[in-house]
Amino acid sequence: MLSAAEARQVLFLGYGNPCRLDDGLGPVFVERILQRGLRNVEAEADYQLTVEDSAAFEKCDVVVFVDASTCGTEPFEFSRLEGAKELSFTTHSIKPEGVLALAGELFGRTPDAYTLSIRGYEFNSFGEGLSPQAADNLKAALVFAEQFVQGLEKNVN
Amino acid sequence: MSVSAEAQANKTKRVVIEPVTRVEGHGKVTILLDEKDQVQQARLHIVEFRGFERFIQGRPFWEVPVLVQRLCGICPVSHHLAAAKAMDRVVGAGKLTPTAEKIRRLMHYGQMFQSHSLHFFHLVSPDLLFGFDADPAVRNVIGVAKKFPDLAVQAVMMRKYGQEIIKATAGKKIHGTGAIPGGVNKNLSIPERDFFLKDIDQMMEWSRGALKIAKDYTMAHLKDLEPFGTFDSNHLSLVREDGAMDLYHGNLRAIDSAGNKIFDQVDYSDYVRYIGEEVKSWSYMKFPFIRSAGAENGWYRVGPLARINACDFIDTPEADAARKEFMALTAGKPNNISMAYHWARVIEIIHAIEKIRDLLHDADLQGDDLVVSGARCGEGVGLIEAPRGTLFHHYKVNEHDQVVMANLIVSTTNNNEAMNRGVQQVAKHFLSGAKKITEGLLNRVEVVIRAYDPCLSCATHALGQMALSVELYDHQGNLLDTKAR
Q1: 3-state secondary structure of B427
Q2: Closest CA to A128 of A31, A4, A60
Q3: Does residue A113 fall inside a structural domain?
């Protein structure tokens, strides 16, 4: 059995606006995964990804970007992520591949990275809470995330 | 009348740049050409996401400073503080305790520092370091990271420093709860203070470096920048009673393009008597104006350029020295050069970090007297100088403590007319006579809008980002050309 210090550290970065219905899937995911008290797991939520997130990978071996998807596969999609080789135009926010690229360029950190895109349905008005379907998708994503973390431990063992 | 119908009626071509990149939300630019391919009209359209004011209605007033942060992922702290200031009036808190006001100020300067740093290094420096016509694949933050890695690290660490201040004062990075009606709910501990003091000299040094870049670039390219998207305008901002720049609190001052005062030291609770909001059929965003000057001539600019033009001085030494250099460029008169926004913005980075340094040495931050209250009131107005400019929050609250009216005028809305004029000026200069949309035009339309650091997610209550696409229509509405990035 590995000690906590030897195990792979996982960071979940959830983003979205909890006041825009299903756009809040990322932050709600973070809230729920923290409640599970998993070993070697950290989680942070924000409205959107920004450049300073690239400095957050210092202590993590694996990073998972968690966001709501408007048209992806149900209940969620989990994909390996590569850093962007180039980045054209962006807004104040930055995409996961941009954050990953910056982490490598600026801080020499290239953790294994994944995106967890949880399918949402209601985005077009203000309101708190998830739609019933999105809530179901979130549950499935949480179960998967827990298995994923446990799988990492087994692989290391 | 729709743009297409208008185009047909006026025998014009329509150029659509949609949406604008490196700004938030859904914005598009339409440029109407006449039969001689001359620009007749250019407009910045913003697709508004309505309903936030309505969403707030019925909520208990004490929830509002937290709720409004969800308006925008870019400047939630500005909304948090403006709403808290409005609710101070509702709970009858005339003057906050020294600890409460200073904690709020620290939060605000942290927000200003990180927001301006992000804008300057992440969004603007690629234009300055690589040139307006550089390949967009290079002219971005990754390009900066590859060619100027030290600068890129500074940018990230400055942004992070400001964000950590927000986290320490607001309680958390997302949905901060630090400012409450009548005060704050926490002070700054000694360990927290020492954590920030450890890096303050480095932040000062990096800020000075940013100032040098902005100033040197502006002076070296003045011939090109001076006419670029430039026009005379009024300027509006809060100023302190002695005329000093004050980003957190003060009274309203408006000046014209020559520096004459239109009004001064106006209590912002009376803003509706001085500021009107015009609705135009083609735009979801309102067009605010100074009532005494009328809708036609009373439009104004807000933000760093306006603040430096409107104030008499800055009460921190390095920022004031920088302000004097800045104002010397226009012989002490208001600077109306749109591209000077960037230089002005970096002067405010200096001011913010000087203020943070001074506050960190102030023992009031560790005080325990956090909240005051007084006679309950049914209405409150809160204004703050947000990174992008003056932000208005206005609420009415009923006897059951529920919000029954909310009106917000966000910074980007205040700059609406100015951004439209900038786009029009650039389009006329760089497109007229051309048969097709050039990369150079696209780049320059983006550059002029970016000068204002618009946050369309605030202005439109929308989030999101999309690629850039451009469409060219003839005067009958036929698509002639399209470009996409």
Answers
A1: helix
A2: A31
A3: yes
Identify the residue among A17, A30, A89 best suited for mutation to test binding to B, counting B beta carbons within 10 A and taking the highest: A89
Instruction: Name residue B379's beta-bridge partners.
Output: B396
Nearest by CB: B485 against A54, A89, A125:
A89
Nearest CA in chain B to A90: B22
Indicate if the pLDDT at residue A88 is higher than 80: no
Q: Does A20 touch chain B (CB under 8 A)?
A: yes
* Residues present in chain B in total: 485
Spatial distance between the Cα atoms of B311 and B324, rounded to a whole number of angstroms: 11
Q: What chain A residue is nearest to B26 in terms of C-alpha separation?
A: A91
Whether residue B248 is predicted with pLDDT greater than 90 in this model: the reply is yes
Whether B20 and B152 share a structural domain: no
Of B452, B441, B427, nearest to B285 (Cα)? Answer: B452
Which of A70-74, A115-119, B36-40, B234-238 is predicted with the least confidence, judged by mean pLDDT? Answer: B36-40
> Does residue B159 sit at the A interface (CB-CB below 8 Å)?
yes
Structure tokens at B330: 């226009």
Sequential DSSP letters for B56-99: HTTSBGGGHHHHGGGG-SS-HHHHHHHHHHHHHHHTT--S--HH
User: What domain range is B442 assigned to?
Assistant: 3-49+423-484
The answer to whether the beta carbons of residues B371 and B97 sit under 8 Å apart is yes
* CA B324 to centroid of chain Cα atoms: 22
pLDDT band of B129, cuts 50, 70, 90 = confident
Percent residues over pLDDT 90 in chain B: 60
Look at residue B463 and tell me if it is in a domain.
yes
Say how far apart CA B401 and CA B395 lie, in whole Å: 11
Burial A123-139 (b: 16+ CB within 10 A, else e): beebeeebbeebeebbe
CB atoms B24 and A127 under 8 Å: no
Half-sphere exposure of B331 (CA within 13 A, CB side): 1
Residue B481 identity (one-letter amino acid): D
pLDDT, tens only, B298-347:
999 999 999 999 999 999 999 999 999 999 999 999 999 999 999 999 99
Domain of A96 in residue numbering reads as 10-156
> Per the structure, how many domains does chain B have?
3
d(CA B191, CA B196): 9
As for the ipTM of the complex, it is 0.79
Structural domains in chain A (count): 1
DSSP single-letter state for residue A8 = P
B141 in A contact zone (CB under 8 Å) = yes
Whether B223 and B141 share a structural domain: yes
Write B263-270 long-range contacts (CB < 8 A, 24+): B263/B290, B263/B292, B264/B239, B265/B239, B265/B241, B268/B238, B268/B381, B268/B383, B268/B392, B269/B89, B269/B381
Q: Does position B198 have pLDDT exceeding 90, yes or no?
A: yes
Whether B245 contacts B355, CB under 8 Å:
no
Considering the domain architecture, whether residues B290 and B161 belong to the same structural domain is answered as no
pLDDT in tens, A113-153: 999 999 999 887 777 899 999 999 999 999 999 999 999 87
- How far out from the chain centre does Cα B421 lie? 17
Q: Which residue spans within A17-111 are E strands per DSSP?
A: 41-46, 62-69, 76-80
- CATH number of the domain bearing residue A35: 3.40.50.1450
Residue B364 in this model has a pLDDT that exceeds 90: yes
> Looking at the DSSP assignment, which residues form a beta bridge with residue B14?
B32, B473
- Arithmetic mean of pLDDT over chain B: 86
- For CA atoms B418, B458, B307, B113, the dihedral sign is negative
